[in-house]
Amino acid sequence: MTSAAYTGRDGLDAISIANRGLNYGDGVFETMRVHRGELPLWPRHLARLLEGAKRLGTPMPDVDFVEARIAVMVSAVEASVLKLLLTRGEGGRGYSPPDDALPTWILSLLPLPPMPAALRVHPCETRLATQPALAGIKHCNRLEQVLGRAEAVRAGCDEGLMADMAGNPVCATSANLLVLHEGRWRTPPVDACGVAGVLRGWLIAQGLAEVASVTPRELDNADNLALCNAVRGILPVRALGAREWSPHPATGELQARLAMAYPMFEHAGTNP
Predict the structure, then answer these.
(1) What is the pTM of this model?
(2) How far apart are CA 165 and CA 153, in angstroms?
């Protein structure tokens, strides 16, 4: 792993124990696919990063400087994952943020995760709490997802599906949910909890998916399921708990449409 941390325009050797991201999860982050020295989905990641910083009231570092540092780090990289973590910085009494906070941001270059052809998904008992002030953004408070993923691992599954407090499915621990129903892909809303995924946003903008609530019954009766995120692309779901699905042409078509726009996903999770 390669990483670099900055406060303003100055590089840091270490993160202070007073950093608010470490103490309170006071920050936001983006996890991005690197392809041939570029970040093809960067404009969408940047838009969500700016929205998250605005919601938290965190000062945003100079974007041109951040982009210049990113360019240096990924310029010779064929395929990888870049994580950008932005925290409010240091200080403040308890939870109260300081008035003159100087943000800290960290870049980390990581290997690509495994790209399975289809996923076995565990229905998580851990629920997503309702909090519209934080819904949609990728903030650093991810303990619900940590608990959900631990459930999935114990069940021997690849991912965990998480529901809201009413029991309606929302998303996976690290991906958005796509539900095929009567020839249309639906994705649950994320205005009360969950993350507005970058790839989910692209699918909606292209008219390939629509935002619609999904009940547990509708999920069980779906023609097919898939998960999507900006690192692994679109991954078919083979099973959710005891419910299993066969490969569906609509999932392959959706993968093909994505690969036409973003060739980095050409071989990611190809539907068998």
Answers:
(1) 0.93
(2) 22
